[in-house]
Amino acid sequence: MIIIDGSIGGGQLLRTAIGLSALTSKPVKIIDIRKGKKGGKPGLRPQHLMGIKVLGEFCKAEIKGLEESSLEVEFTPKEFKVCDRRIDIGTAGSIGLLLQTITPLLIFNDKPITLEIIGGTETRWSPTIQYIKYVTYPILNMMGTDLSLDIIKHGYYPKGGGKVIVRSKPTKKLIPFNRLDRGDILNIQIYSVCGSLPKDIAERQGRSALRTIQYHYPNTEVFMSYKSVESLSPGTSITCYAVCENSILGGDCLGERGVRAEIVGEKAAEELLKSLKSGAALDKFMADQILVFLALAKGESRIKVEEITDHCRTNIQVIEEILPVEFKVDKDKREISVEGIGFKA
Fold it and tell me: Which terminal residue of the chain, N or C, has fewer Cβ atoms less than 10 Å from its own Cβ?
């Protein structure tokens, strides 16, 4: 059994460790969960439980310590087989974070999969569902996956109630990802949404992001759409992404009570602009998400990222403990490379 020190990270560590355990059928025991997390209560949080539970069901795992505040969890998987199903996370648990956890299993399943997932589509400390749809999955599809996502209903904190349909076809071959620059910007897209709030809030968010981006890229095509939708709890979100020659980069922001819509839109735009001006092929959020897939691909991958974050370093450490790979990180150049194992289910 592989022992992993859970004090070095938070939810990302758990998602990566349990996800790879389920995929490879290697038992893991995570100890001292979130003990080193500043300003947070140690142990498993409610948002971690559903991801581990779903993975356990996918691979008929024996799980010990799966309860809130538990400092240890032991996960012993058997052969995995993912079937079409409905997953209700409950309240506003993040659909995006659940997808980060289970996507490696989806792509290596031996049959096409359709999942209906109920929960939060836009939640704090996680990518918006539009980011997953328009940035994460298209980039993974460049590596040979066949993933798609339909947003049926938006769900905000605290009641959630959002709904998405995720489809995945078996991946014949996960190919390496080699991108050291983004290439020219082809176009930029802005999606502004508000739930159970006046439509002008979504419009103001979108127009603020549009102005901010056009100021810096006046000759680039920028498309903006906004809408108001029905949701169980009120909320707003905005996602901006740039389709480039070699890659896609994104930025997003959630509205908050007391924060003007114009500020929310500007923040999302500035997040994207920072990524674009770095010259990197991947923004800092996608840099974290893609590492598992680079390690599973067949052959060497090499990427330049906006920023090598603590999340990124922790993710690398966990992957290296479970898979026979060694990442090379050039902090000054912001480059990461790895020889993938060519995983086959």
Answer: N
What is the spatial distance between Cα 338 and Cα 108, in angstroms, rounded to a whole number? 20
User: Is a pLDDT exceeding 90 seen at residue 241?
Assistant: yes
Helix-helix angle 46-58:11-24, to 10 degrees: 10
In Å, how far are 49, 113, 180, 312, 329 from 247, measured between CA atoms? 33, 26, 10, 19, 20
Structural domains of the chain, with CATH: 1-80 (3.30.110), 82-279 (3.30.360.20)
pTM summary value: 0.96
Distance (Å) of CA 51 to CA 126, 264, 320: 14, 29, 21
Give the pair of three-digit tokens for residue 110.
């031996």
Query: How do strand 335-341 and strand 222-229 relate by DSSP bridges?
Result: unpaired
pLDDT tens across 116-172, in order?
A: 999 999 998 899 999 999 999 999 999 999 999 999 999 999 999 999 999 999 998
Model pLDDT for residues 286-298, shown as the tens digit of each residue: 999 999 999 999 9
Q: Of residues 48, 154, 216, 311, which has the active-site annotation?
A: 311
Q: Rounded CA gap, 166 and 37, in Å?
A: 32
Alpha-carbon distance 222 to 213, whole Å? 8
Catalytic annotation on 311?
Answer: yes
DSSP assignment, residue 122?
B
Handedness of CA 56, 57, 58, 62 (dihedral sign): positive
